[in-house]
Each structure stands twice: as structure tokens, then as C-alpha cells.
Amino acid sequence: MKEFKIRASACGKIMGVRGLGKTGKSYCEDWLKEQVFNRKKTFQSKFTDKGLIMEDNSIDFIADQLGYGFLVKNEEHFENDFCQGTPDIILKDHIIDVKNSWDCFTFPFFDKEIPNTDYYWQAQCYMELLGLSHYKLIYVLSDTPKHLIEREALYYAENNGYDELDNDLYLEFENKMTYSDIKPTDKIKVFDIEYNKEDVEKIKDRVEECRKIIKELL
Question: Domains in the chain, ordered, with CATH?
Fold first, then answer.
């Protein structure tokens, strides 16, 4: 059986303030099940659907708004002795991670700090893997794809006494879930994260804890 290495995207699950905790131990159990049953645990939601569909458009939007000119999505997987993952965009001196907000109310327009600390730990993993010290976590407020708008409108219609999804109701949802009337600078939010050696060492220590838990489970 291969040795446990934390996926960068899941690092936050094992970095509880008071130790590994229930979430971390549950993650270890799921990881071990993946090895035993040769199946990968997956998660899908309307939020992840939008993120995957709009990723390329958001990368182009970021390139235009922040003056990069052109950005290419990274497909290469990296790993070391403790962590592994596939960063979104790798540049000479920093990494970019792209997040698509579901709507304007989940978009961190006013936030001064990273709204989800899991992304901080993900950033530390990626910087450690690439040997880079700078990281940009970038949220984009993008238009919702039409089929997801229709799905939301249809769900509302079915649960609120409509016989069918009429055009007026669809247009109401389209207006709420697209943002062509909003200026581009209000649809992008950048959080800069710096490499923290001490926190990377904490990740390594927590990975060792996970390995002990997995041995006990075995």
C-alpha cells in the first residue's frame, strides 16, 4: 500500500487547531478506504459544477484584468514526501489559484482575510511543492452557465406552485445569476499569501500523525 501524502486541496481537513480532530481522523479513514477498495471518493455540487465549467473563462478574465496577457491552466501533478496536488496556474515567481463564487452573496467582496482557511493550507502545500514563496488566491464572480440557471429556476418552479417553468421566471433567475451589468473590477478579488515555513512544518507533523492513525486502523 502506498504511503499517505495529503492532497493539497484536502490539507485543511487535517489542520485542526487542537490536533487532528474528528474531521482529520475521518479523512484518514476515507483515504484508507480508497486504498482498500480501489475507489476514489468524489464530491459534486452545483458550486463545484459552476467552478469547473467556468474555470477557463475565469482564467482568461484574470489574465485580462490583472495584466498577465495570457495564462495557461496547469495540468502537471506534483508531489513530495508529504503532499501532492495540481496547482491551477504556475508562473515564474508565484502560483495562482482560481475560485468561482456561486453568486454575488458568496463572493468575498468585503473580506480582508481569506474567507476559507482551507485555502491557506492548500496554498502552503503548493508553494512547498513548487519551491515558490508567493501565491494569489483569486475569486471571480462569473456568469452562471445557462443550464445551471435553468436548473435553479426549475427547482423553484416545482416547489412554488408553478405548472411549468415559464420564460418570465427563467429571466428573473438569469438576471440574478449573471453579472454583465457589474463593472469588471468589482468581479475579482485577490488575496496574497506568503510561504510560511513554520506552517509547512506543521503540515508535515500532521501528515506523520495521519500515518500513525492509518497504521492503527490497519
Answer: 43-143+179-199 (3.90.320.10)
Chain centroid, CA 161 distance in Å? 36
**b/e code 21-52 from CB counts within 10 Å (16+ = b):** eeebbebbeebbeeeeeeeeeeeeeeeebbbe
Element (H, E) at 19: none
Q: Per residue in 147-174, pLDDT tens?
A: 999 999 999 999 998 888 889 999 999 9
**pTM recorded for the entire structure:** 0.94
Question: Please, what is the Cα angle at 12 between 8 and 17, to 5 degrees?
Answer: 145
Question: Amino acid identity of 44?
Answer: Q
Cβ neighbors of 134 (< 8 A, separation 6 or more) are 93, 94, 95, 127, 192, 193, 194, 195
